[in-house]
């Protein structure tokens, strides 16, 4: 089995070398001679799997992407070439949900809102798939008031309660977690278009951590010339990487499409792809993600002397603080003469971050059954209480 894998897939060598002759490649620089004899191709979103690429790889038995999205796959070409494919759906769901929580808590700090104040706000989650469900779980753990909007799932056997988009547009915080769908019964291109944007007001927060194009940025800017608009947290932008810098002044926080870029999120994509290849080959998996992930130092908060709600925000920011990424992004954009290149470089060179579950927090003994500890655990943190 000859396996080609993207050298930006963490732990790929450890995984794929167990299954055969594994060789790395850099995105955009696949050795065509090697590709011609490859049995499996493991990619990330920076490699476009097109009819032209497939024509150079007659031996391919499987193509897998270590990403949740698959816009880079020409599905018709894969079908025509009779090459099975695998998508690591949900690999970055936890990472994106934690990005959103960091944004919400940073928004609360800007507005001088405490956790009790946040619970008075209604959060609308548009898209209740992998990411939306991960966010729902964390919102529920924090006792937040939220609603879900997902027309395709509402028409399915999903038993959760769903609301329509107009209901979400009346929420205090609107979180977008949908794929970019151009047509069909439920398209999401410009889901927040001119008509929807006109229904929004200056007291709202809109978070787009899914795909650029879900918000009609031109319509937003047109309305912004007329009246005050909601503040935005944008991680996904139209026309990436050549984004419109005119949107930046309307962003409370802005980042270069890195919401899902945790070590766990990327590693999970690698291991899901590895599992797919094992399944294709009829082999058992010989290595797991937990075996290779580095551990974090334990955080000892016993000196805090209490376990109150301020620890929730502190715990979130200790693992991911959106404000830091926002500062780096704004500074880079302000100095850039080539927005597209800068955006791409920021993504490529993004500093590694970890998910909440990687962190163990030591708390005081009397907080063993405290609601705050339960909320920290609901967010994913490992908590210990000492005697």
TrEMBL record:
Residue ranges of domain D-isomer specific 2-hydroxyacid dehydrogenase NAD-binding in the record: 105-259
Keywords: Cytoplasm, NAD, Oxidoreductase, Pyridoxine biosynthesis
Keyword Oxidoreductase: yes
Pathway in which the depicted protein is active: Cofactor biosynthesis; pyridoxine 5'-phosphate biosynthesis; pyridoxine 5'-phosphate from D-erythrose 4-phosphate: step 2/5
Residues engaged in binding NAD(+): 150, 235, 260
UniProt subcellular location: Cytoplasm
Top-rank taxon: Bacteria
Record InterPro entries: D-iso_2-hydroxyacid_DH_PdxB, D-isomer_DH_CS, D-isomer_DH_NAD-bd, Erythronate-4-P_DHase, Erythronate-4-P_DHase_dimer, NAD(P)-bd_dom_sf, PdxB_dimer_sf
Ranges of residues in domain Erythronate-4-phosphate dehydrogenase dimerisation: 293-367
Active-site residues, as the UniProt record annotates them: 211, 240, 257 (proton donor)
E.C. number: 1.1.1.290
Catalysed transformations (reactions): 4-phospho-D-erythronate + NAD(+) = (R)-3-hydroxy-2-oxo-4-phosphooxybutanoate + NADH + H(+)
Function of the protein: Catalyzes the oxidation of erythronate-4-phosphate to 3-hydroxy-2-oxo-4-phosphonooxybutanoate.
Family membership: Belongs to the D-isomer specific 2-hydroxyacid dehydrogenase family. PdxB subfamily.
Assembly description: Homodimer.
The name this protein goes by in its record: Erythronate-4-phosphate dehydrogenase
């Amino acid at each position: 089995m000859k396996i080609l894998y993207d050298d930006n897939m963490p732990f790929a060598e450890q995984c794929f070398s167990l299954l055969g002759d594994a060789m790395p490649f850099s995105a955009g620089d696949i050795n065509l001679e090697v590709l011609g004899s490859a049995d499996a191709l493991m990619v990330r979103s920076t490699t476009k799997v097109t009819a032209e690429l497939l024509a150079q790889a007659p031996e391919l038995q499987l193509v897998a992407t270590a990403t949740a999205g698959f816009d880079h796959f020409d599905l018709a070409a894969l079908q025509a070439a009779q090459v099975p494919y695998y998508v690591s759906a949900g690999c970055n769901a936890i990472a994106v949900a934690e990005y959103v929580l960091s944004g919400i808590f940073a928004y609360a700090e800007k507005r001088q809102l405490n956790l009790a104040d946040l619970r008075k706000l209604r959060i609308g989650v548009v898209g209740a798939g992998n990411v939306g469900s991960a966010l729902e779980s964390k919102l529920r753990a924090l006792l937040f008031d939220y609603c879900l909007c997902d027309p395709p799932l509402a028409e399915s056997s999903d038993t959760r309660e769903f609301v329509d988009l107009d209901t979400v547009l009346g929420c205090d915080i609107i979180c977008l977690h949908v794929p970019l769908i151009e047509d069909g019964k439920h398209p999401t291109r410009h889901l927040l278009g001119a008509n929807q944007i006109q229904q929004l007001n200056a007291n709202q927060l809109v978070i787009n951590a899914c795909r650029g194009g879900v918000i009609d940025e031109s319509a937003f800017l047109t309305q912004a010339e007329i009246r005050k608009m909601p503040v935005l947290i944008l991680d996904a932008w139209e026309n990436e990487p050549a984004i419109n810098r005119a949107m930046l002044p309307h962003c409370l926080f802005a980042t270069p499409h890195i919401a899902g870029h945790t070590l766990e999120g990327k590693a999970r994509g690698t291991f899901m792809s590895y599992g797919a290849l094992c399944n294709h080959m009829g082999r058992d998996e010989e290595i797991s993600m937990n075996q290779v992930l580095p551990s974090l130092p334990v955080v000892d908060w016993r000196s805090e002397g209490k376990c109150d709600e301020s620890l929730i925000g502190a715990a979130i920011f200790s693992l991911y603080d959106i404000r830091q990424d926002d500062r780096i992004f704004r500074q880079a954009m302000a100095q850039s003469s080539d927005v597209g290149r800068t955006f791409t470089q920021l993504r490529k060179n993004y500093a590694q971050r970890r998910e909440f579950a990687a962190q163990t927090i030591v708390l005081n003994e009397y907080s063993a059954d405290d609601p705050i500890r339960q909320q920290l655990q609901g967010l994913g943190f490992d908590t210990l209480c000492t005697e």
